[in-house]
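Regression test case RT-17, inverse folding.

Input:
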């Protein structure tokens, strides 16, 4: 069963909002676009593994997706953790394209794409370190850890995987996500003896889920040009900013498209970039609405969480607001 479901990362939502409203003539926008691309690719790779895992019988296992666990003064992250009576299995997902050359002697991965060679940290070593950190976490919570295995799933079906030294550890630990239904039985063969009861499995799961702290980037450290970010409601058709609000509809002055809820994405962007509170005045500045009464009516209709009265009232997003 799935003990913790992977959610769309808040970090990606924030990066999407930043890229959407970052000044087009600012050279730093390209850096945020590259970071967003990498994060989206990583998330896509994780979801690819989720899909292939969903095709197998996991009635005798607990699957925890996307864990970020504190340890000492930092965190360790587990893309996918499988808890079975015999072992714990950490699977780290990679969605690299191109030719992937594993060189474990020097703990590095060489990626060749479009005749460009790049050096990456060894994902096998990374997964091994995560497994070690997981053991340390369990011991800290007075849980005697069962065997902890670690694998690396390559989710990009177009990637060419190479193991030039024919290293047996690379052959065993690296696999394509689509092969997971056949890879997990290999681990069962290695650890045939059941060690954990169902209660033990649930106990480990509870501790990890309770400790999980999702990554929420601090925008204050990003040096964003907050006073230059693009304002206005964005047209859902042509993506031009600056729609006009008239008689309950947003109208795009560029393509003529109309929308009844273009303000919702604008509000989401505001909360993601500027913080969890907005006032009537700030909403009017964001959407170019002149009427205080109109702005108040729109904000009230969204069932936002509010505090204060009159001019001092602030609005914040309710739970699941970003899921709409």
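Golden output:
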């Amino acid at each position: 069963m799935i003990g913790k479901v992977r959610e769309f990362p808040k970090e990606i939502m924030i990066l999407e909002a930043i890229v959407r409203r970052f000044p087009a003539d600012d050279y730093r926008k390209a850096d945020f676009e590259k970071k967003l691309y990498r994060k989206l690719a990583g998330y896509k790779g994780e979801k690819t593994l989720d899909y292939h895992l969903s095709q197998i019988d996991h009635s005798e296992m607990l699957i925890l997706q996307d864990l970020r666990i504190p340890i000492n003064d930092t965190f360790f992250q587990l893309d996918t953790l499988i808890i079975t009576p015999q072992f714990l299995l950490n699977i780290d997902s990679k969605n690299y394209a191109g030719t992937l050359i594993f060189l474990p002697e020097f703990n590095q991965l060489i990626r060749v794409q479009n005749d460009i060679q790049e050096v990456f940290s060894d994902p096998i070593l990374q997964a091994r370190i995560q497994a070690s950190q997981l053991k340390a976490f369990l011991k800290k919570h007075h849980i005697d850890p069962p065997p902890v295995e670690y694998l690396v799933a390559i989710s990009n079906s177009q990637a060419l995987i190479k193991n030039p030294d024919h290293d047996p550890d690379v052959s065993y630990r690296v696999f394509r996500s689509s092969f997971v239904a056949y890879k997990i039985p290999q681990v069962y063969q290695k650890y045939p003896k059941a060690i954990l009861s169902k209660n033990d499995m649930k106990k480990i799961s509870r501790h990890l889920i309770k400790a999980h702290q999702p990554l929420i980037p601090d925008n204050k450290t990003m040096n964003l040009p907050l006073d230059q970010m693009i304002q206005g409601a964005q047209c859902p058709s042509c993506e031009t900013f600056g729609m006009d609000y008239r008689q309950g509809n947003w109208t795009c002055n560029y393509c003529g498209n109309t929308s009844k809820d273009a303000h919702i994405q604008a509000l989401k962007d505001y909360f993601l970039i500027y913080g969890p509170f907005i006032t009537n005045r700030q909403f009017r500045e964001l959407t170019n609405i002149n009427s205080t009464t109109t702005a108040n009516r729109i904000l009230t209709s969204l069932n936002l969480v509010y505090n204060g009265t009159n001019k001092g009232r602030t609005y914040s997003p309710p739970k699941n607001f970003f899921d709409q």
